[in-house]
Structure formats: C-alpha cells, structure tokens
Design goal:
This protein has helices at 16-28, 38-61, 74-80, 82-90, 96-101, 106-114, 129-137, 140-151, 154-180, 204-229, 246-265, 269-291, 293-315, 317-323, 326-349, 360-364, 382-390, 392-419, 424-442, 452-466, and strands at residues 93-94, 123-124. By secondary structure, it is mainly alpha-helical. It has one domain (16-86, 135-326, 383-466).
Length: 481
Amino acid sequence: MTSAAGDDSDAGPAGPVAIFAGALLVAAAPIVRASDYFFVLVGLEWLALCVIVALVMRISLAPAGAFARDRLDPFTLALLASPLLIAVVQLAPLPPAWWEQLPGHARYMQALQAAGFDTARWRPVTISPHATSASLLAGLPLVAAFLLGWLGTVLQLRLLLRIVAVVAFGEVLLALLQVSGGQYSPFYFGMMTFGAPIGTLGTRNEYANLLAMGLCGYIWLAYDAVRYSMRFQPGVPRRTGRFDDRHAVAAWAAGGLVLVVGLLASQSRAGITFGIAAGALALVVASLRVFGRTRGWRVAAAATALAMAAALALVGLDPIASRISGEQVQASASFRGELARTSLDAAWAFFPLGSGWGTYDIAYRPFQPPAISGYPNHAHMDYVEMLVEGRALFVGFAACFGVAALRRVASLISQARHERTLDRESMLAALCGIGLAGFLAHAAVDFPMRVPANAIFACLMAGAFLRSQGSQAKADAPVVQ
C-alpha cells in the first residue's frame, strides 16, 4: 500500500533521524519546569543541534532540486537567521570609547570602573555578553522546532502534534493531582503556587498557555481523523452518515473537554481568555470544512457552549470568578501598566540596538520605580521586554514575521474563497496559525516567549503555519493501493 505523493513519513526534507530527535525535543521540553533550568535547556540545545544537522545533511545529500518546493522566502529566512544576525550585531566587539558612547551604556562603564575591571579592552554591544550568548543559544531549539514544522510532511507533523496532545493531557492529569492534594501537594515538587495548578511548568499562566496550543493542535488531529483518515481507508465502504464513526467522534469530543477543563482549572485570566477564544475559532474553521457554511457555525457554537458548560460544571464558577474580581484585575493591570511604562523608558534609553538579548533584568534595574518591589526579571509583556533588549532588531524581525503571516493568511483565505474548501495541509496550517495567534496574544500580557517549552511548541506551530503553499504535493489525496 502506498500513499499520495508528499504524504510519506520520510519523503520530505525532514527525514526519520530529524523527526526522531524532534519528537524527543517536543516530548522532553515541558518535563522540568518547562526546561526553565540551565542543565535541562542545555540538553534541549544538543537535541536541537541534532535536528538541524540531520536536516542540513539530508537536504545537502539529496539530488539537485529534490526539495526545491520547500525553499524559504526571504522573510522566513530572516526569522530563521535571527539568532545569528543578533549575535553579529550585539556580540560584535567595539573600542572602549565607542562602547561608552552607545545609548544607555555610560552608567555601566562607570560601574565597571568603580568595580576595578579593565575598561581598556574592547567590549560587545550588549551590556552582558554571557547573558546574550546564553539567550541566543537557547534559540537553537526554537529554530529546530520551526524547521520541523516547515519541512515535515503532513504525517510527520501529525506525529509531532500527537506528542503535543499527549503532553497536554499529561499536564492536565498532573494539575488535577496537584489540586486534589491541596497547597502542599507533593505533586508540586517543591514549587510554591498557593494551590494553583501548574503541571510541570512554573506558573498557572505558562500551564494555561501550553494547554491552549495543545487544544488547537488536538482539534486538527480530531478533524484529520474524522474527515480524512476514516473516510479514505482502503477497503472500507464510504458511509453516507454524518460521521464515519460516532464512537470515535464522541471520544475525540471527550478528550477536548478534558483539555478545556484543565484550561479553566488554571484560573489564568489571560490563558483562559485567549485559549478558549483560539480553541473556539479553530473549532469554527474545522466545522465549516466538515459541515459547510450554514451548519458549521451552528455546530461550532453549540459544541463550544456545551463544552464550556460541562467544564464549568466540573471546575466550578467560584474559583474562576474570584480571579476576575474588579480588585484583582485592577491590581494586576496597575502593576503591569507601571512595569510596561518604565520598561519603555529603558527601551528608549538603549535605542537603537537595545541592551542585549537576555539582559532585561540587568537593563531595567536603573529604571525600576519604588512602586515596583522585588526583582522583576521579566516585563510581563514579551514585546516590551524584547524592545528593551533588541529595539530596532526586534522591530525588524517582528515586521518580517508580520509580512510572512499576512501573506499566509491571504493565501489561505484565497484558497477557501476560490476552491470553497481547504485541503488537508491548509487546514493544518490554519489551525496551527490560530494556536499561534493565541500564543502571540498571550505574549502581550505575559512572557510565554521566555518559557522554553511554550516557545518550542509555538515555533513548531509557526513552521506548520508558514510552510509554503503546496509544499507537500497532493497532501489531501486519498490513500490508494
């Protein structure tokens, strides 16, 4: 038995070695506080390097033009090269006189002189070369995950998304054990969270953000099973009913309910808002494909309402309502607003090259007002934090992503309008794009981009979303003997 061209698990640039290493990367990323520990992150960096080397070797050893259809456009290429480009700019050594004249650097030169350091040697643009180097090396898993999403076949991506779904279910199970054990449950593994479910991650927001992406990936897996895999199996008569297998549909729906329950149990305001919105939109897109325009909206609305009602009945309304009280929302908004305002002051002080990737906690301290106590190591708004660290570099890369994303959205809309449908690969791109959009929206009020596991999952979805149109020929064609 063979399948349509481009749908073989090892037929594309991402061969078995790269996929195996990528599967380990995706599965291992959330295990220890979402890999937010140096020793775990180093392991992921080595795995990512294996993925990248395997991809490069497979493409370089392939016959000329074998993977020409997967070539990168300039905007995507700029995104992939961003860690290297940032390193060239921010780690480039400058003479002491030039370094001191860089915006925002004078106070650090004075501090170095006061501490007795040698100020006569050349220094990189960044205010902390070690922090910037470590931060850029942490980009290796992100590049590897993006390449897997971009170059993998549909079946390979289905395997990776299944791992994402399994990870999400595991997080929900652990979170329920944490809640059932109370504030001092041993399943928190020493983390003090005051009873909030976090799974293997560090905060409820990180946990909810991971589940939100997992939910969108799960919806595509359900769509793929119901609409494609069951419908085109060889030797199985094509049924005329609404679904090929009602029991399978019920099982998929139950799994989606579990993820929604886990999401609501997090009590994360942003996680619930963006996660449910992304999941509902993904369900609408899939329903329109399965049921058509008229019935699709009704089915999606009814399924979303039913899932929310069932999840609220299981979780309870009081825990969620307590998190959206006026006093709590006002206090959180006040803190984040003041942090953003003063962080933007720091961003202007380091215009145009930024303080250096990974140096926010150092760069922000001179701008920290008395109203913000403690040690803010993140801006709680990823875009503001990246403005401080990268300034013009961040704006440039964000513009590249914006152009690439808008072109992809326009391509998907054009296909849906002209062909009145989305093929298998395009539906994969659309639903992964929706999951990515939820992640990016969450990044406006928190720092999921700074959480390795969440960022890896998002980059995998970004690759699947931005992959070139028709990169897998006939990906939606039926399986033939």
